[in-house]
Every structure is written in C-alpha cells, then in structure tokens.
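B., you asked whether I could sanity-check this one before it goes into the benchmark set. Here's the sequence:
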Amino acid sequence: MCYNIGMLKRIVASLLISTLLPLALFADEASDQEYIKKLTYQRNRLELVTKQREIDERRSYSYTDIDSYTYSYEAYAHTSTDISTQTLDRSEKKEVTDWYIYKGGLRQISDPEFLELVGAKTKLALVLKEEEQKARLRGFGNILIGTGLAVMLGGAAFSAPEGTTTAGALGMTAGFFLNAFNLSPQHYIEPDFAQEKIDEYNINLKRNLGLPLSNN
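And here's what the prediction gave me:
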C-alpha cells in the first residue's frame, strides 16, 4: 500500500512538472519578446528636442553734426565751426530656441530624412525641389566668385584697364551675395507640423510592434 502511494506521488509530481515547465518557458519567452519589442521601439522612435541659447546683439550708432556760421561786419568776416559727435552703443541679450529631430534619441536627422521616414512624399518633393534650386544658384555663385577672382588677378598681372579689375570685383561680390541669399535654411518645415508627424509615426510603430500606446 505504501509502495502504491509513493508511486502515485511520483506520477503526480511528474505530471505537474511536465505541465508547468512549458508554461514557465512560454512565460519567459513572452517576456523576452516584450523586451525585444521595447528595445526596437526605443531605437526607432522619433522625438522633437528643443534647445535654448542666449545671443548677445550689439549695435553701435554714430552721428556727427557740423555747423558753420559766418559773420560779416563791414570789411571783416568771422567764421565759426561747431562739430559735435554722438555715439550710442547698445547691447541686448536675446533668447533663441532651436529645435531638432532625433531618431532613437541619438541620431539627429535632416528634414528630408524625416519627411521620407514619416511618408510625407508631397512635402518631401517640394523640399527637394527647393534645395536643388538653391544648390544650383550657389553653384552659379561659385562660378562668379572664381571667374571674378581670375579676372582681378589677371588684370593686375597684365596691367589691364581699371574697368577690367572693377568688373572682376563686381562679379565676385555678386557671387558672394548669390550664395548668401541661397543658403539652406535650418528647417524647411514648422515644428508643429513635425510634432504631429512624429506622434503619428510613433503610434504606428507601437501598433506594428504590438506594444500598448501608453508605453514610453
């Protein structure tokens, strides 16, 4: 009888182990998958980061007033000149807010990269077209700068007329202005538009990974 009870206990224990062990392994595997999903989300999520900095603006104003008076009395004349100069220096500190888009909290991405990532194809096409136009104009500006410099150096070397050197200087100046007015802006999009697209992207990323929307 005791032998039968012992055998029964061993059978029950074996059944419990064979039943609970797969459940424990399945729970561990599910926990591992959840952890991997969270890591994937952290590496691919987007965020908008703002940074504030102070800049010191200085302005200087100078004003010179020259007044001349001439007094005549019979055959005598007296001239008096009064010169006064006023100078005003003004310094003002301003707080500037810059914003950036980061992927995974580490890598900063440009506006075209961001627009392609969130699928804003129409906006991306417009940005690329505008950037291409600016790059083309900057290239033309560089040509003007190089040509103007060559004309100035050549004119000085071969004692060309003054008009030749002046034309070269004007060409260089035009090239510098053309480049300055066609520099790429820091952003082609507004921060509120970027934040809206970031929220949509992160929500879809969570859904595709099967994570709750409340997950950070």
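One thing to flag: Residues 2-44 form the longest helix (43 residues). Otherwise nothing jumped out at me.
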